[in-house]
From TrEMBL:
<dbReference type="GO" id="GO:0000160">
    <property type="term" value="P:phosphorelay signal transduction system"/>
</dbReference>
<keyword id="KW-0175">Coiled coil</keyword>
<dbReference type="InterPro" id="IPR043128">
    <property type="entry name" value="Rev_trsase/Diguanyl_cyclase"/>
</dbReference>
<dbReference type="GO" id="GO:0052621">
    <property type="term" value="F:diguanylate cyclase activity"/>
</dbReference>
<dbReference type="GO" id="GO:0043709">
    <property type="term" value="P:cell adhesion involved in single-species biofilm formation"/>
</dbReference>
<feature type="coiled-coil region">
    <location>
        <begin position="128"/>
        <end position="155"/>
    </location>
</feature>
<dbReference type="Pfam" id="PF00990">
    <property type="entry name" value="GGDEF"/>
</dbReference>
<dbReference type="InterPro" id="IPR050469">
    <property type="entry name" value="Diguanylate_Cyclase"/>
</dbReference>
<dbReference type="InterPro" id="IPR000160">
    <property type="entry name" value="GGDEF_dom"/>
</dbReference>
<protein>
    <recommendedName>
        <fullName>Stage 0 sporulation protein A homolog</fullName>
    </recommendedName>
</protein>
<dbReference type="GO" id="GO:0005886">
    <property type="term" value="C:plasma membrane"/>
</dbReference>
<feature type="domain" description="GGDEF">
    <location>
        <begin position="183"/>
        <end position="316"/>
    </location>
</feature>
<dbReference type="InterPro" id="IPR001789">
    <property type="entry name" value="Sig_transdc_resp-reg_receiver"/>
</dbReference>
<comment type="function">
    <text>May play the central regulatory role in sporulation. It may be an element of the effector pathway responsible for the activation of sporulation genes in response to nutritional stress. Spo0A may act in concert with spo0H (a sigma factor) to control the expression of some genes that are critical to the sporulation process.</text>
</comment>
<keyword id="KW-0597">Phosphoprotein</keyword>
<feature type="domain" description="Response regulatory">
    <location>
        <begin position="2"/>
        <end position="119"/>
    </location>
</feature>
<feature type="modified residue" description="4-aspartylphosphate">
    <location>
        <position position="52"/>
    </location>
</feature>
Length: 316
């Protein structure tokens, strides 16, 4: 254990040094604040500081303040060594961060007892700090794991879009918000045209790739951060558009349909020789007596109508 003595009186320094060295401590003696600071810079392995109060230049209390305001030394316990006449300074010494004090003339047994108890307190504080840091780390890891699980449980594994569970949650919460704010909410449902023949022709793996390709087109056409694109079912997708009128939703729906058609994914069994989608759009002004399921019903009817009218079109 390394102890740094700071005292301008040589006899005190020599005495403290002798007592501590004979008790097995590694002792460093300095005669001024400047000398002590230089020593601390060079030798960081100091476990405790014995600090005289009255010294020419920077006195003990000011030095204690300096040490305690430096992150590198903050945790090193400081014991003030003071003459009876400086007892009024003790309040200031404790305010400056001193852990304990000892009166001059220093008695050997008291000195060793106070040093041991300061070092024990320091060890206990270190242990507590370690436990707190460990607890913080574990808490952060746990929060991260919970976030990951929440993500996993709300995302569709194939496309990375929101899944049906997330769709239901988001629609319910946005429905409530729309009631509070008196704003509309729109829903787009779209379904791949002739997808069964697509799978039959190209195989299920390419069918999956087609679903992924469609999902990856979505960020370009659905841009508001409050909009949520979901994989609603097998080859059916949904977009929840909070605070969006019928007109706005129709524009988004048409840009989805066009973007897909323009992507030109080959589909020999489709009349247009490429993958297309049919789109249904519905808009509601939610009220406390209404339910989100009615909006889904309207969008579904519109989608069915788009299929009936020949596919690759949007119906509201
Ligand atoms: P329509 O134009 O009327 O929508 O005809 P369709 O053939 O697309 O409709 P249908 O509902 O008969 O077929 C949907 C097909 O989508 C059947 C099913 O095998 C396929 N499908 C559903 N989910 C997946 C999936 O995750 N991967 C693949 N590859 N195919 C899927
Ligand atoms: Mg002095
Ligand atoms: Mg379908
Ligand atoms: Mg289909």
């Amino acid at each position: 254990m390394g102890i740094l003595i700071i005292d301008d009186a040589e006899d005190t320094r020599l005495y403290l040094q002798a007592v501590l060295a004979s008790d097995g401590f590694e002792v460093y003696a300095t005669a001024s604040a400047q000398e002590a600071l230089a020593h601390l810079q060079d030798r960081p392995s100091i476990d405790l500081i014995l600090l005289d109060v009255i010294m020419p230049g920077i006195d003990g209390i000011e030095l204690c303040q300096q040490i305690k305001s430096d992150a590198a030394w903050r945790d090193v316990p400081v014991i003030m060594v003071t003459a009876l006449t400086n007892i009024e300074d003790l309040d200031r010494a404790f305010a400056a961060g001193a852990m304990d004090y000892i009166m001059k003339p220093v008695k050997k047994r008291e000195l060793l007892a106070r040093i041991r108890s300061a070092l024990a307190l320091k060890t206990e504080m270190d242990r507590r700090k370690e436990r707190e840091e460990e607890l913080l780390r574990v808490t952060a890891e746990l929060e991260e794991a919970v976030r990951k699980l929440q993500n996993l449980s709300s995302l569709d594994g194939l496309t990375g879009l929101a899944n049906r569970r997330r769709f239901d949650e988001y629609l319910a919460s946005e429905w409530k918000r729309a009631i509070r704010n008196g704003t509309p909410i729109s829903l787009i449902l779209f379904d791949i045209d002739w997808f069964k023949p697509y799978n039959d022709t190209y195989g299920h793996i390419q069918g999956d790739d087609c679903l992924k390709a469609i999902a990856s087109l979505m960020p370009k056409v659905v841009r508001r951060s409050s909009d949520l694109v979901c994989r609603y079912g097998g080859e059916e997708f949904a977009v929840i558009l909070p605070d969006t009128s019928q007109e706005g939703a129709l524009a988004v729906a048409e840009s989805i349909r066009e973007a897909l058609s323009e992507a030109g994914i080959e589909h020999r069994q489709s009349p247009l020789d490429r993958v297309t989608v049919s789109v249904g759009v519905a808009t509601a002004y939610p009220s406390p007596s209404s339910e989100p399921v009615t909006l889904i019903g309207y969008a579904d009817e519109a989608l069915y109508e788009a299929k009936r009218q020949g596919r690759n079109r949007t119906v509201e």
